[in-house]
Amino acid sequence: MDKQITVIRQADTIVAYDAATGGHVYTRGDVAFADGAFLQVGGAYTGPAQEEISGKDRMVLPGLVNVHCHSGDEPIAKGIFEDEGTTALWGNALYEYSSLIDIPAEAVEATLTVMLGDLMASGVTTLVDIAGPNPAWLPTLAKSGARAYVAPGFREARWHVENSHRLDFVWDKARGAEAFERALATVDEAEAHPSGRLRGIVAPAQIETCSPELLQKAAEAARTRGVPITIHAAQTMTEHEELLRRTGMTSPQYLDSLGLLGPDLILGHCIFIDSHSWTRQRSDSDLDLLAKSGTSVAHNPVTFSRSGMILQSVGRYRRRGVNVGLGTDSYPFNMLEEMRQALICSRIAGASVADLDTSGILEVATLGGAKALGRTDIGRIETGARADFSLIDLKQKGMQPNYDPLRNLLHCAAERAVSAVYVDGACVSRSGRPVNLDYDGALAALQDAQDFAIRHLQGNDPQRRPASVLARPSLAWK
Ligand SMILES: [Zn+2]
Fold this sequence. Notes:
Bound molecules: zinc ion
Helix content: 25-40%
Number of strands: 20
Strand content: 15-25%
CATH superfamily of the largest domain: Metal-dependent hydrolases
């Protein structure tokens, strides 16, 4: 039987990979794909084709690679703690507030479904989901049609905030060891998944909640399997100070001392390094450690800038030779908004419009993420690469008038202009809705799950404060 060949005929704009420069360029023409891979990019395709898609008023955009997000309870955390933060812990809400949210087990599939639907609607074709293993995880990811890396988190210590001012660590190494074994089993299951689109990542949850022995065991397990490693590191000032107290080192220095830095390691956030203006160091060597070792950074500007924190700066990290990929972390799970925020935050942190440009942030969100995952076949529209892409509607109102469609997409239209998203040449999202998942049903289930979480806030709070105090409404109810 002949293989099924599809052609996007005469696309108005193609964002194609340019091998000569190693970046993206604009071009026009046909895009043909078969067996999940691009056959021809640009020019006129004259071979046989079983299906034609009109490329009129369409931009073909490479699939976006999201290197850091969390399903689990993040999709129901929306609207609760955006105005909160522990002032004694540098204003971060992570330790005192985010930990209070519980999710009912039966809601896990719904939160994952909503996250996937939202990510794909914004052009994400590959994602790294850092979460707790659960029975719905691999089946739902596989069903979605997305390319997904499962990163089952494990740790030996949990956080406890005493009286809103001191972060303590409650260690349980036996529990950590069990979680580590469970995580490895899930990684192996993903790597062996028949879809070929699921992969695994070894994910010690946070640099300060795992012992050095566990971190080294995790790296060894990843390297034996040939899969990447990811860890939250240099995430908050509280973590930075805790590591200084324990080891006298910053996160990159500590990971270097343990032999973890390398091209297979992705550092989640990596904000508070020695050169950040909030830290007490007056040195500037961490970026060199990351660059020399080939370690990647997963940058997630939306959640951190919501708390008044900013990486200094994406442009500077890149100029120093550090590979940066982009993630969404939590809601709104919108990669195009994340790119806009990344661009703006980088320019604010770098105090210059020249700190990072549109092509730079596109590279971060595509090639940077692919490189972090050790891949040269995704995040690019090139013959032989996987056929992961979006079709952007150039007639959507935010895309007009059209001089430079990428700038329109990032600064105005965002996901509103994404008409369809393809992974391995198959459509996975159309008009903002996932093709293979019941998004609306899942969305309806989120309210019950969030009501459950709100009811449990007080019981989870060591100070037993009511929800109305912990999560003050933005306006008083009268
Ligand atoms: Zn995270």
